[in-house]
Amino acid sequence: MSNQIHIAAQYLAAASISFLPKKEDDSHTNLGFNKEKGYLETWPLNDRGCKITFDYLNFSLHWVANNTVRLSILLDKKTHREVLNWLESLTTSLTIKKPYAYKLHYELPYDSISDDFVFKKPSNNVLRELLHNRILAQNVLEKTIKITSLESDIRIWPHHFDTGAFSSIKKSDLSIGLGLAIPDSTQDGYYFYISAYKGHDGVDTSSFDSLSLGEWKNKDFKGAVLPISDIDEEKGITFFKEAISTYKN
């Protein structure tokens, strides 16, 4: 059911692609996470700071202006075409000069969405769990970045749908990426990940000492992973601190 959320997030990414200046690193498409409200949100889309957001618990999209919800659409039982009609009408009425276009320049890990695709709201328990995962990731990354003196924004990338941060390591030629990944070929469930790079090459982990939490990988993915099942903030921070310390040494 997490695919339903991933699909919904693409409406936000498409808005950013439609209305914001393109950046070479694609960062104009990434999303923020408002942990107080439980929203995914775009960058501001106009000079009035308006955003399109996805509300986890209500399974809906909002148009937000001045931090206030102005218009909403509940996604349950709506078709892809109905959601697009709402977005196209909304952005036209707000006199945004460019039209809203659902055109993604990356592939997603599921079949393309047709006009007659119908959203089905996940159970409240599933929505709460998915929201909990994002809040946990946000809190762990915020505290890890502060404790380890890294410098990075924390954003959600709509392609892989990870909550991620990226930073160089001071007094080193390494950079690291860390965050929360959704289930994929590496892990069956949500998991924390961290990897280091020298230039564009992943750092070999085969000689690293074992971690007290999580494990090192050194095949397609070179880095460390920790499934988040039964993991709290303290354990998440410990995992990242140990891995970062290993890279620094």
How would you describe the overall organization of this protein?
This protein has 249 residues and is of the alpha+beta class. It folds into 2 domains: 2-122; 125-248. The protein has helices spanning 2-19, 80-93, 124-147, 233-248; strands at residues 32-34, 39-41, 51-55, 60-65, 68-74, 155-156, 163-168, 175-181, 191-198, 201-202, 215-218, 222-227. The strands form 2 sheets. Strands 6, 7, 8, 9, 10, 11 and 12 form a 7-stranded antiparallel β-sheet that branches. Strands 1-2-3-4-5 form a 5-stranded antiparallel β-sheet, covered by helices on one side. Helix 3 (124-147) packs across helix 4. The longest helix is centred in the middle third of the chain and has 24 residues, at 124-147.
Strand residues, percent: 15-25%
| Rg, Å, rounded | 19 Å
- Estimate the mean pLDDT confidence: 94
Number of strands: 12
Shape: globular
Total helical elements = 4
| Secondary-structure element series | HEEEEEHHEEEEEEEH
Quick structural overview:
The protein has 249 residues and is α+β, with helices and mostly antiparallel strands. It has helices at residues 2-19, 80-93, 124-147, 233-248, and strands spanning 32-34, 39-41, 51-55, 60-65, 68-74, 155-156, 163-168, 175-181, 191-198, 201-202, 215-218, 222-227.
Helices and strands, with pairings:
Blueprint: H1 2-19, E1 32-34, E2 39-41, E3 51-55, E4 60-65, E5 68-74, H2 80-93, H3 124-147, E6 155-156, E7 163-168, E8 175-181, E9 191-198, E10 201-202, E11 215-218, E12 222-227, H4 233-248
Antiparallel strand pairs: 1-2, 2-3, 3-4, 4-5, 6-7, 7-8, 8-9, 9-10, 9-12, 11-12
Helix pairs in contact: 3-4
